[in-house]
Design goal:
One of its GO terms (biological process) is monocarboxylic acid metabolic process. Belongs to the short-chain dehydrogenases/reductases (SDR) family. Pfam families: adh_short. The protein is 47% helix and 13% strand. The two termini are 31 Å apart. The longest helix is centred in the middle third of the chain and has 29 residues. It is of the alpha/beta class and 268 residues long. The protein has one domain: NAD(P)-binding Rossmann-like Domain (Rossmann fold), CATH 3.40.50.720. Strands 3-2-1-4-5-6-7 form a seven-stranded parallel beta sheet, sandwiched between helices. It is globular.
Length: 268
């Protein structure tokens, strides 16, 4: 096991985390920055807001934090995002495909445009980003790709057909790419969190309450946490700590794994 201090674990590495201006993503980015990595915060917020958040994290951890606002619905913007990071920082060692969107509805009422958008952001964007980032990682003989899979990459919940389908696809993509680059010094893994109280979850509460005909408090206790044995939300920094470990040299033999961090959800 490495005896490096936490702040030196990823020193000299450059990491891009998609969807990292809020929620799980910012928790991951913070932990990578705490590990000494130069990081790139990605989000669709106005540039000034992104830069303000990035500056705060840079000041806290004494690292460089760049920004990018690519729209992941558009494959060319995904490819341009990877190229821009490589050009600006000279390399991209760590790619965390984390961005996600959600819509909750029975499948027979599910809007096609919502389905397409969810698949595009959660599944297609990681494919395009991975494809663009891999050649340089292979040439360098070192790389880390981590996908945020969710426990919905492993099990399903009703009314989330597109999300479940996309996340299951992420699990398959993770395993396939891991096998393809297993001898190249590049690892590919997925972290599968249980429910984390993020802006995405907060937005779901009202729609879940309406769909199920119950108060929001009941959605939390009887829907979201009913199958999460620890009976609390997973913390974004806990997810980030797992991602950080996967990005270290100590985790070089961990690849093709979909690692649950779900408070026991999938242990049943």
């Amino acid at each position: 096991m490495s005896k490096k201090l936490v702040g030196e674990l990823l020193k000299g590495r450059v990491a891009l985390v998609t969807g990292s201006s809020t929620g799980i993503g910012i928790g991951i980015l913070r932990q990578l920055a705490a590990g000494g990595a130069t990081t790139v915060m990605h989000g669709l917020e106005p540039e000034a807001a992104l830069q303000q958040k990035a500056a705060a994290i840079a000041a806290q951890y004494g690292t460089i934090v760049g920004t990018n606002s690519a729209n992941l619905l558009h494959p060319q913007e995904v490819r341009d995002m990877i190229a821009r990071v490589q050009e600006e920082f000279g390399r991209l060692d760590i790619l965390v495909n984390n961005a996600g969107i959600q819509h909750v509805a029975p499948v027979h009422e599910f809007p096609e445009e919502k389905w397409n958008a969810i698949i595009e952001v959660i599944l297609n964007a990681p494919y395009h980003a991975t494809k663009a980032a891999l050649p340089a990682m292979i040439d360098a003989g070192w790389g880390r790709i981590v996908n945020t899979g969710s426990m919905h990459a492993l099990v399903a919940s009703p009314f989330k057909s597109a999300y479940n389908a996309a996340k299951h696809g992420v699990a398959g993509l993770t395993k396939t790419v891991a096998l393809e680059v297993a001898t190249k010094g590049v690892t590919v893994n997925a972290v599968c969190p249980g429910y984390v109280m993020t802006e995405l979850i907060e937005k779901q509460l009202a729609s879940q309450a309406k769909t199920r005909g119950i108060p929001k408090e009941k959605v939390i206790s009887d829907v979201l946490l009913v199958d999460q044995p620890i009976k609390r939300f997973v913390k974004s920094e806990e997810v980030g700590a797992l991602v950080r470990h996967l990005c270290t040299d100590d985790a070089a033999a961990i690849t093709g794994a979909c690692l649950s961090i779900d408070g026991g959800w999938t242990a049943r």
